[in-house]
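Lecture notes, structural biology module. Today: joint structure prediction for complexes of two components.
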Amino acid sequence: MLAKRIIPCLDVRNGKVVKGVNFEGVKDVGDPVECAEEYNRQGADEIVFYDITASFEGRGVFLDVVRDTAKKVFVPLTVGGGIKTVDDIRETLRAGADKVSVNSQAVKNPQLIRDGADIFGSQCICVGIDAKKIADEKWTVYINGGRVDMNLDLIDWVKQIEQLGAGEICLNSIDADGTKEGFDIKMLKAVCDSVSIPVIASGGAGKIDDFSEVFEKTGATAALAASLFHFKELTVGDVKKHCREKGIIMR
Amino acid sequence: MISIIDYGAGNIFSVKNALDYLGLDSILTSDINQIKEADALILPGVGAFPGAMKMLDDSGMTDVIKEEASKKPLLGICLGMQMLFDKSYEFEKTEGLGLISGKVDRIEAPGYIIPHMGWNKLEKLNDCPLLQGIGDDEYVYFVHSYQAYCDDSNIAAYSEYPDKVPALVTDGSFVYGAQFHPEKSGKTGLQILKNFGGLIK
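The predicted structure, tokenised, for the full assembly:
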């Protein structure tokens, strides 16, 4: 049966990993290609690069990072950040990404999901969502890095995403993000129960049990974390070993 | 030299990247002479069956591939693997290359997420040179909604979702097909590609 996936995420600005990483054996601590190789060695099932560069020049550097990584790391690569058009999707896939993650732009222009899925296939269109709780069992969707509330109901949005042909959802909880108190189980469960496409849990992982909990209590097929792995609090290998001991299928 | 057949579909660069990494010489080509002169062929593919077969037909490669497949190793990947079979029912009935007997149809998995996407375990069924050095607990990366239905004798390894999904198939001679993406399956996938490279005489 399908294994649950553990996905480290690397935030990249101007060709460098933003959060300070300090892996043993990695010479340039800020080099995203070397970080991706290290995560690959640790057993990452997929790697996400998130471009937080604001400039046009930075975009070129970022795509070079994707290109270089695709020559050395042979697990699926997902690339997000700054993708606004079908041409952006094409350029990113051509650089070696297997999937793109669209977030704010998908909310502003949902047709981007449909066009991307029609041209490149659903399997390479992941929709990233930042959502925040407004009442019990009720959440709304935010854009621009969690700064702007779109007054869009989360459950309505995920159903729409699925209909538009998205292949996957990466769901980040604004409430849980950065707290290290665990994934937002309630929100994830509500979303997993509303759609039949895979859902990646994001935001809130702080300890090893958080990973087994999210797989035991929700239908999430993958769990994503950034700083936890950046700061070497846990390795991907530690997390997978723990989940395996809990009886969760892991590669 | 391995010719990776470029008929305008899929992320063929990742296959090339993996072969480069392994030090196996390869070229991306749609040139019939380069297909004839190659030591081995890889038929990649992402997308839908009818469109892909049409692209092969239109570029005049269908007959060449069928002919060369009796002389040198051929590896179909993902949709390229499905194209090795007699026919597919994706959207409409379409003739395949007919190099392995069997058909391609929807994955029957009520209650399961389709596409079958992610890492699944390889269950070995028959000896196969491509499985050399592959252990009993190894996972490979799949992305597909259709699967092959064929005789067990053609299945070198399968995965469960929840029924048997042929993962690695062969005609027992020169023709091999991987439903998963060896170029995206980490060390396991690289080993399988290396084994394929080792078939070159």
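Point to remember: The mean pLDDT of chain B is 95.
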